[in-house]
Design a protein that fits this description.
Strand order of the largest sheet: 1-4
Strand content: under 5%
Radius of gyration: 19 Å
CATH architecture: Orthogonal Bundle
CATH topology: P1 Nuclease
CATH class: Mainly Alpha
Number of domains: 1
Oligomer: single chain
Number of helices: 14
Largest sheet: 2 strands, parallel
Structural class: mainly alpha
Order of helices and strands: HHHHHHHHEEEHHHHHEH
Number of strands: 4
């Protein structure tokens, strides 16, 4: 769906590219996660809204923590949506943000692709279990809200559900419009992941803040909202949706085509026979045609994530209110022996 609005200005484009030369890219960036949270907030039940706001207000983030994202909406849920990235280096929770399904994989139980330090689908299940537990410590439940709002968003970013031995596209240099890729901090800028995290989205936002964009998406997808709600909570299906979109659009519209790699374990862009340099040598490019193909996917995934996040929080609040614990749709149980816990993630 193409939403009519003016083109992105060169000045704002330059600011976006400047952001890309910093730390490794994370799903949707500040504005994307905040947009998802704001859509969800408008679709929360009264019980869920009370629970979320009480937990977050009474158990605030450590004021000494360096926050990477401003909160222009002054929403507790929108502010919470970016916290897991703020503590990523402290908690070493990197593997909880994604699931590595290899390109070309056949549909199978997601446990086959969830690494030894867990993955996003298991993280969602574990944190939902904590939130549903009315006897859990309030601080733990507040952190569970922060993780859930972020991880549901992450799961809807296509590159967080696929791998081509390229660290979610961080090892795929891409010439985007006028900017040629270059090596930076063990990765590249621009790279495929950063385009989908921030650049494509913010180019489409045209300087709008998350509140404006959330309202725009809610209006644009108004005819779909009731159907998305009626579909219920099926976390595994959401992961496979992202995987399919990554194959068909994220990789599918690149020129030249990037072949599927034989799956191997990678920890840097120098692994898999220096995959980063091999991708650089392909001279992958993306411009107007790619942006036009990507924007409808980005818009829909943000809107779907917001509605589905509300479903998860509404059901968790209902379960907590009745002191019951029951599975939510197709969410898999965490493999840890203790409900609501995850194995420690590996350092990335």
């Amino acid at each position: 769906m193409k939403l009519p609005r003016p083109r992105f200005t060169p000045a704002l484009l330059a600011l976006t590219f400047a952001w890309l030369t910093g730390a490794p890219a994370w799903a949707w960036g500040c504005k994307g996660h905040q947009t998802i949270a704001l859509i969800a907030e408008q679709n929360l039940s009264p019980a869920a809204l009370r629970l979320v706001n009480q937990l977050l207000s009474e158990n605030p983030v450590d004021p000494g923590l360096k926050r990477n994202c401003a909160d222009p909406a002054h929403s507790l849920l929108a502010d919470a949506s970016t916290w897991p990235d703020d503590i990523r280096g402290i908690a070493k929770n990197g593997p909880w943000h994604y699931i590595d399904i290899p390109r070309g994989a056949s549909r199978a139980p997601l446990s086959e692709f969830c690494g030894p330090q867990s993955c996003v689908t298991e993280a969602i299940a574990a944190e939902v279990a904590i939130l549903k537990d009315a006897a859990a410590l309030p601080g733990k439940r507040a952190d569970a809200v922060r993780y859930i709002v972020h991880f549901v968003g992450d799961l809807h970013m296509p590159l967080h559900a696929i791998t081509n031995n390229d660290r979610g596209g961080n090892c795929v240099p891409v010439q985007f419009f006028w900017r040629a890729p270059h090596a930076v901090n063990g990765s590249f800028a621009p790279n495929l992941h950063s385009l989908w995290d921030v650049t494509i989205l913010e180019r489409d936002m045209d300087g709008a803040d998350p509140s404006e964009y959330a309202q725009l998406l809610a209006q644009a997808f108004a005819a779909d909202l009731s159907r998305w709600r009626a579909a219920g909570i099926h976390v595994d299906d959401w992961a496979w949706e992202s995987y399919d979109l990554a194959e068909s659009v994220v990789y599918g519209h690149l020129r030249p085509k990037i072949p599927a790699e034989k799956p191997v374990d990678v920890h840097s862009c120098a692994d898999d026979n220096n995959i980063g340099q091999r991708m650089m040598d392909l001279h992958v490019s993306a411009a107007d045609e790619y942006q036009e193909a990507a924007v409808p996917v980005v818009q829909r995934r943000l809107a779907e994530a917001g509605i589905r996040l509300a479903l998860v929080l509404n059901e968790a609040a209902a379960a907590a209110g009745t002191a019951q614990s029951y599975p939510i749709g197709a969410v898999p149980l965490a493999r840890s022996s203790e409900p609501g816990t995850l194995p420690p993630p590996r350092v990335q």
